[in-house]
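Q: What residues go here?
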């Protein structure tokens, strides 16, 4: 096949700053928001500038959540930037997702949250016509899925399962039938075909299999469908996480799901993927560059990680607000207890390198590591030993919970899921990896 290379940029959540991003309502909103709002447009522009400086990579692929929350002005501003990519010689292919259409879009002005004009799902086809749909062989207008030949004998199957609230994350029989037709035609034409979808197909980390909105619904069915039809690669977003996962169907066919973080939230990364003539795929992770803001002496990554940790701590505290005595006690304990004290409760002795950390900070650091991929907390490390020790003490409770969490015929091992979430035990990197693809002629 003809070798090709492309950039993968997901979850830009582009927000037009002139709509308003300041005041009391904005400050309150940002206390529990992981992604950046006021800074997002400059972050995206900085990434696009880096992409335009690369004269050797022709393609840019963006799997959904292009705007913050469907604001018409945000779409208009982002589309201007996409045209700049085209003028620089890039071929841009996008799909949309739930954050891209919203008739109740909001902005922040004069200390208040105020309504602004949004766009409907039906308008997205025309708005982004020049970034995928105009090049498409076939379009499923109901979902805005499409298929396009982006390079000689290379076809992109752009799957969109985020077309309305009732079917978010659903690949139903009708859409499967349409996808089957496109895959069969690509095979008949002798093309290599790969896919994009906003939702991950394979759970990014094991515990996400327990979270309904973390991947497509009934994900094993769709993963089997793709793998057994020779679609070996899918590019996804939605969960704002760096992960690469291999899944094998019952027939032994492989699907590789490459999920990429939000451009505008920790860990603030995007990817360049190179598929060579001899079917070797190299995945490279790139950091969002400096975007011209005063970050108070922090690096871009430190700035993003700080917002991630603080926003999640604030979410927990907000959930525990109220007059109930148990909430007040739990809130006070969680915000003050140290790892060493927690260890005493569960008869676990944490390593001196972590024992003096506050539990909330400790959990936040683990969360950052999970979302950044290549989680370092493998067997034998202080964090692994502490977590596994607590899980052993809770084993009698875990065994009672597992049957209730089980889905279908797939048994749940909660301890194993947690430990394989805090550590990358896959044998390859979530950020910079190399795979030999099989389904290329």
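A:
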């Amino acid at each position: 096949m003809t070798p090709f290379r492309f950039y993968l940029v997901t979850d830009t959540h582009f927000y037009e700053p002139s709509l308003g991003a300041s005041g009391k309502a904005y400050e309150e909103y940002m206390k529990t928001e992981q992604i950046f709002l006021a800074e997002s447009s400059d972050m995206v522009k900085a990434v696009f500038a880096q992409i335009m400086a690369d004269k050797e990579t022709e393609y840019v692929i963006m799997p959904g959540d292009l705007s913050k929350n469907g604001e018409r002005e945000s779409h208009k501003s982002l589309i201007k930037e996409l045209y700049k990519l085209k003028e620089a010689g890039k071929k841009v292919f996008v799909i949309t997702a739930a954050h891209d259409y919203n008739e109740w879009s909001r902005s922040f002005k004069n200390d208040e949250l105020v309504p602004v004009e949004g766009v409907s799902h039906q308008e997205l086809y025309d708005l982004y016509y020049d970034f995928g749909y105009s090049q498409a062989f076939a379009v499923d207008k109901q979902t805005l899925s499409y298929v396009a030949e982006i390079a000689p004998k290379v076809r992109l199957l752009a799957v969109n399962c985020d077309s309305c609230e009732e079917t978010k994350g659903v690949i139903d029989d009708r859409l499967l039938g349409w996808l089957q037709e496109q895959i069969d035609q690509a095979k008949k034409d002798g093309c290599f075909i790969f896919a994009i979808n906003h939702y991950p197909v394979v759970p990014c980390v094991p515990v996400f299999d327990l979270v309904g909105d973390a991947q497509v619904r009934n994900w094993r069915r769709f993963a089997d469908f793709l793998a057994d039809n020779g679609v070996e690669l899918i590019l996804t977003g939605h969960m704002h996480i760096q992960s690469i996962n291999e899944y094998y169907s019952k027939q032994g066919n492989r699907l590789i799901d490459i999920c990429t973080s939000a451009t505008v939230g920790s860990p603030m990364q995007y990817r360049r993927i190179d598929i060579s003539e001899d079917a070797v795929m190299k995945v490279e992770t790139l950091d969002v560059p400096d975007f011209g803001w005063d970050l108070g002496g922090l690096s871009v990554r430190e700035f993003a990680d700080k917002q991630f940790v603080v926003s999640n701590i604030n979410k927990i505290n907000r959930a525990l607000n109220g007059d109930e005595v148990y909430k007040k006690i739990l809130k006070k304990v969680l915000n003050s207890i140290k790892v060493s004290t927690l260890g005493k409760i569960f008869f676990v002795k944490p390593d001196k390198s972590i024992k003096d950390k506050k539990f909330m900070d400790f959990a936040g650091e683990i969360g950052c590591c999970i979302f950044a991929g290549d989680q370092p907390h493998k067997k034998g490390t202080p964090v692994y030993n502490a977590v596994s020790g607590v899980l052993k003490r809770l084993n009698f409770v875990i065994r009672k919970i597992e049957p209730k969490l089980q889905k279908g015929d797939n048994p749940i091992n909660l301890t194993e899921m947690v430990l394989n979430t805090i550590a990358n035990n896959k044998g390859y990197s979530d950020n910079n990896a190399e795979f030999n693809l099989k389904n290329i002629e």
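A: Context that may help when evaluating the design: The radius of gyration is 22 Å. Residues 300-319 form the longest helix (20 residues).
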